[in-house]
Amino acid sequence: MLELDQLVMDFSGFKAVNGCTFRVEEGSITGLIGPNGAGKTTLFNLIAGALQPTSGTIRFLGEDVTPLASHQLFHKGLVRTFQIPHEFHKLTALENLMMVPPAQPGESLLSNWFSWGRVKSTEVDVEKKAYETLEFLELTHIAHQRAGNLSGGQKKLLELGRTMMTSAKLVLLDEPAAGVNRTLLRKLESKIELLNKERGYTFILIEHDMEMIEKLCDPVVCMAEGKVLIQGDFQTVRSNPQVLEAYLGETTGDAA
Ligand SMILES: Nc1ncnc2c1ncn2[C@@H]1O[C@H](COP(=O)(O)OP(=O)(O)OP(=O)(O)O)[C@@H](O)[C@H]1O
């Protein structure tokens, strides 16, 4: 589904990503791990079109998408979850979901004027989809609560819900476990798994929580110093001496 070939991101002489090559198979949940500063977020920025690589290519569903920007990739089904924008905190959970769908007829004043009926029916469809999404995430009870008042875990679930409002095929999740309590973490994991198994979403997730990586991800790609150190199943990666060395090079050593 996604092929990265010799990707390099050079920040004024410092290569944060330094020749990354790997493939993501359709239907997989690929875990991206590595010590702090390994280049994971930069690589996500490259895949999502937020940064242009210095060199190398990115192919998505067979197409060279290297020069494309985030919004173009979004329309092709490559979606990155972001924190709920600050200005959306005053909107309810339901409204946050309803704001997502791209290219609604209602977006243009002119098309509004000429096709009022179509706009109305689209709004009804979007609301229905938003309610279904809340139900899937077991968040129906907070539909009318302001997003800013939700817990960390509920916000993460809602962010996942925002991707479900699009025609996402490949979803990039940046540290979904961060700041989420254990109970909601299990729920978040089970929803990611369901979206993958039953709805066919492919995921790449950056995560420092090794329990989540072990539970969800196959394969696991470990990066260090801008390069792919090794990829394979969790046990293979975890027991690789180079991986242990890379993590022990930082203070926490939390790979093991
Ligand atoms: N815009 C930038 N300009 C210069 N250096 C940058 C820039 N963005 C990132 N870097 C550097 O690139 C390296 C990789 O950073 P990146 O955020 O990709 O790592 P990471 O693996 O996501 O780390 P973490 O797990 O701590 O989030 C770091 O040394 C960082 O300081």
Automatic annotation (TrEMBL):
Record-linked InterPro entries: AAA+_ATPase, ABC_AA/LPS_Transport, ABC_transporter-like_ATP-bd, ABC_transporter-like_CS, BCA_ABC_TP_C, P-loop_NTPase
MF GO annotations: ATP binding
Domain ABC transporter: 2-250
Taxonomy, superkingdom: Bacteria
Keywords assigned by UniProt, alphabetized: ATP-binding, Nucleotide-binding, Transport
Keyword Ubl conjugation attached: no
SUPFAM superfamilies: P-loop containing nucleoside triphosphate hydrolases
Cross-referenced Pfam families: ABC_tran, BCA_ABC_TP_C
Record-linked CDD domains: ABC_Mj1267_LivG_branched
PANTHER family found in the cross-reference section: CONSERVED COMPONENT OF ABC TRANSPORTER FOR NATURAL AMINO ACIDS, CONSERVED COMPONENT OF ABC TRANSPORTER FOR NATURAL AMINO ACIDS-RELATED
Family: Belongs to the ABC transporter superfamily.
Protein name: Amino acid/amide ABC transporter ATP-binding protein 1, HAAT family
Biological source species: Roseibium denhamense
Lineage: Bacteria, Pseudomonadati, Pseudomonadota, Alphaproteobacteria, Hyphomicrobiales
